[in-house]
Amino acid sequence: MTWIAPGRGYAVHRDEHDVSIFLIEGEIAVLGKQVVAPAVVFFPAGHLHDMKAVGAKPAKYIVWEFHRTESGHVHGQIPVSAQKPDEIFVQ
């Protein structure tokens, strides 16, 4: 669990792994777009992203990182085959 004070955040960067931000409380801006809790923001590996708390109160969130091997994702030492972005869907 992480908190960011209003006006604070981190600069634009790329990660070598997929990242999801689970925004529990507050408001953030990501690449200039405002996101209000509750919300989930997903950044595929290699894509630029940043974050800044823009509300009057601190933003509370959890970050999940999805690290991969060449054969797929690794979760707790259990390999899971990787999916291509066009294979992922929401119901």
Explain this structure:
The two termini are 27 Å apart. It is built from no helices and eleven strands. The strands form three sheets. The protein has a four-stranded antiparallel β-sheet with strand order 1-8-3-6, with no helix packed on it. A four-stranded antiparallel β-sheet has the order 2-7-4-5, with no helix packed on it. It has a single domain (2-87), classed as Jelly Rolls. It is elongated. A hairpin with a 2-residue loop joins β4 (27-30) and β5. The protein has 91 residues and is mostly beta strands.
The portion of residues forming beta strands comes to: over 45%
Element order: H for helix, E for strand? EEEEEEEEEEE
Q: What low-confidence regions span 5 or more consecutive residues with pLDDT below 50?
A: 84-91
Supply the CATH class: Mainly Beta
Gyration radius from CA atoms, angstroms: 14 Å
Any guess at the CATH architecture? Sandwich
Q: Main β-sheet: number of strands, strand sense, barrel status?
A: 4 strands, antiparallel
Through-space gap between termini = 27 Å
Mean pLDDT: 83
CATH superfamily heading: Jelly Rolls
Question: Helix segment count?
Answer: 0
CATH topology: Jelly Rolls
